[in-house]
Amino acid sequence: MIRSIYIDTSVFGGYFDKEFDADTRQFFEKVINDKITIIISETVVEELKTAPDNVRIFYESIPKEILKIVNTTDEIKVLANKYIAANVLTEKHRADCRHIAAAVINNADIVVSWNFKHLVNYERKRGYNAINYQENYKIIDIVTPKEVFDYAK
After folding, report:
1. Are 103 and 39 a contacting pair, CB within 8 Å?
2. Cα 57 from Cα 45, distance rounded (Å)
3. Is 25 left (phi over 0), alpha (psi -120 to 50) or beta?
4. CB neighbours of 9 closer than 8 A, spacing ≥ 6?
5. Residue 37 in contact with residue 5, Cβ under 8 Å?
6. pLDDT at 153 over 70
7. What's the pLDDT tens digit per position in 35-48?
8. Which class for 132: exposed (0-12), middle (13-18), buried (19 or more C-beta within 10 A)?
9. Domains in the chain, ordered, with CATH?
10. Whose CB among 79, 93, 136, 150 lies 3.0–4.6 Å from 89's, allowing a Cys bridge?
11. Is residue 98 within 8 Å of 43, Cβ to Cβ?
12. What is the pTM of this model?
């Protein structure tokens, strides 16, 4: 059973994106109704500051009792650096590495994103999890909102 989900910034934006809105809205409805903890990092909070107004307003509407904002600790920075050192991503995409590191270190059950280039990508997932395994961290799945739940139930 999923109890906590790390969500990156793209999921909040997906709520208003014509390509992703139906799946994203269904995802948030399930998360909110089932009171599943949403974990976001300081990185997400910073990225949302420059998001369009409707995205920021939606984020602010998330019930505070299910929202957990985690600090970017030294442990997160070190793990993100290891992803970069292993060429999972380049320095330019450090924020994406921090998303995964924050999820892993804060024991999220799963990472949810619409970022196909840097997160929801077979080769990237293998890279992140190779480092996680090597460093004795948990293996984590990274999926889109569409893949998390059986919405047909």
Report:
1. yes
2. 13
3. alpha
4. 44, 47, 48, 51
5. yes
6. no
7. 999 999 999 999 99
8. buried
9. 4-147 (3.40.50.1010)
10. 93
11. yes
12. 0.94
